[in-house]
Design goal:
By secondary structure, the chain is mainly alpha-helical. Helix content is 34%, strand content 5%. Strands 1-2 form a two-stranded antiparallel sheet.
Length: 154
């Protein structure tokens, strides 16, 4: 399928949205998933709230449409996106519901891990020791390149 542009200068191959390079040749819903913290379902909901056609490519979006998308992604509760849909529910410090995107996802993860290590929670200790955290077996798997096995006798 070829991309048809009606006017010159209307299409942009790369768009910069929320500190992320977004491919302009991809449909908008899938292009938004390049932003960390935005998945397919959240991108779908944002586009519905912003009243943007799903068949459009990311490079075809106007400046106003992009601003509307960014506004909805940053303030989802003002646009009646339910709390259970957000990726940071009942934040420990503020008690608020957030949708974290781009660098904020990494920062919050680092803060959470540091807090767990500081309090000496079992999960934090496992992270600190670079071991499996979620109850996996570690006797034989996940040795990180060190192989231990039986050698064949000659």
């Amino acid at each position: 399928m070829s991309l048809v542009v009606t006017q010159k200068g209307e299409f942009e191959a790369m768009r910069r949205v929320l500190n992320t390079n977004v491919d302009g040749g991809v449909k908008v819903m899938y292009a938004l998933t390049a932003i960390k913290g935005v998945g397919r379902r959240y991108a779908n909901l944002v586009l519905k709230k912003a009243d943007i056609d799903f068949s459009k490519r990311a490079g075809e979006l106007s400046h106003d449409e992009l601003e509307r998308i960014v506004e909805i992604i940053q303030n989802p509760l003002q646009y009646k996106i339910p709390q259970w849909f957000l990726n940071r529910q009942k934040d420990r410090t503020s008690g608020k519901y957030w949708q974290l995107v781009s660098n904020a996802v990494d920062n919050s993860l680092r803060e959470d891990l540091d807090r767990m290590k500081k309090v000496r929670v079992h999960r934090g200790l496992r992270h600190d020791w670079n071991l499996r955290v979620r109850g996996q077996h570690t006797k034989t798997t996940g040795r990180g390149g060190r192989t231990v096995g039986v050698t064949k006798k000659k």
